[in-house]
Amino acid sequence: MTPAADRRRFVVGITDHMMGGPAIETDILAPTADVEFFDARSEADLDVERLARVDALMVWGVPLGRRSVDHLHRCRAVVRYGVGYEKVDRAALADAGIPFANNPDYGTEEVADHAVAMILSLQRRLWEHDHRSRRHTTSWQANTLSPLHRSSGATVGVVGAGRIGTAVINRLKPFGYRIVVFDPDQPPGHEKAIGYERVPDLASLLKVSDVVTLHCPATADTRGMIDRTALDGLKPGAILVNTARGDLLDGLDAVESSLRSGRLAAAALDVLAQEPPEDHPLLDAWRERADWLAGRLVITPHNAFHSDASGVEMRRNAADTVRMFLEGRGLRNRVEPD
To answer: pLDDT grade, residue 172 (50/70/90)?
Structure first.
């Protein structure tokens, strides 16, 4: 019997995902592994006996903490379906000697499109016009809102010029915006290759930007970076867009205060620190379509990454990463422990 014929088939666990059963993953992994689909809703749903059987684990929305990692006795790698990994206990994985990888190779176009759609819609005050037009009866066209700025006279500040930030910059340039970027991780000359103005710090970007759009990961340096001090340093009447990570904002109190004062003209958030969101006066006003906030706060349910195509791409890429690893071809997109 050949070594290949004698080799046991691998088992790949899938904790959960938002798009039905694991048919796509099963098809990709079929030559190498069988799939164990947990279909969990919380970490407590991850049966420890089943965890002990998997040779690799794919993770979507369910947190993976030390409680679960301690039962990954045969696991050779954990792969996250998405880009972010704040719900994965990488320290526990490192202690167990289990390498970890994320999946950054999908959804770039969708997140960039989503951010740009938010920027253009808020700058043109589309949602606010829509809300207020319902009450216009004796006049119509005369009810246009002011100020209403021309794109070519506005500055967009991009925080983070990685894959998505760069895609946003490339989409905005044809509209004529001046684009400034704060990203200390980009090498000198990156601004010349892409075509933007580099600023030395966040405060400098906030001071000159009519629109601020966030495209950086959540790290020890960036969590809570948009706090009361940052918002007080905004150019008056600015717009804030966040399609990156919810905890880049230091809570919602300062955002509410800034919207009420007019320092923030509007905000668009695809991500929140708590999802689904907990109760907060700002969210209450948003849900109730309070007149003072109408059209000025837009919230989408953390789906900027999604299209039918990107959903398939995400699943295929993650499954390909696992298959390549189990076949001895290395672990791509490996994330090293902090």
So the answer is: very high
Structure tokens of 237? 């009447």
Question: Is the alpha carbon torsion for 140, 144, 150, 151 positive or negative?
Answer: negative
Distance in angstroms (rounded) separating the CA atoms of residues 86 and 260: 31
Where are any strands of DSSP class E within the chain?
10-14, 33-37, 56-59, 78-80, 100-101, 155-159, 178-182, 197-198, 211-214, 238-242, 264-269, 297-299
Residue carrying structure tokens 């954990």: 78
pLDDT tens by residue, 188-203: 999 999 999 999 999 9
* The model's pTM: 0.88
**Active site residues per annotation:** 245, 275, 302
Residue ranges and CATH numbers for the domains of the chain are 3-106+308-326 (3.40.50.720), 108-299 (3.40.50.720)
| Length of the chain in terms of residues written | 338
Distances (CA, A) of 236 to 150, 214, 264: 16, 18, 7
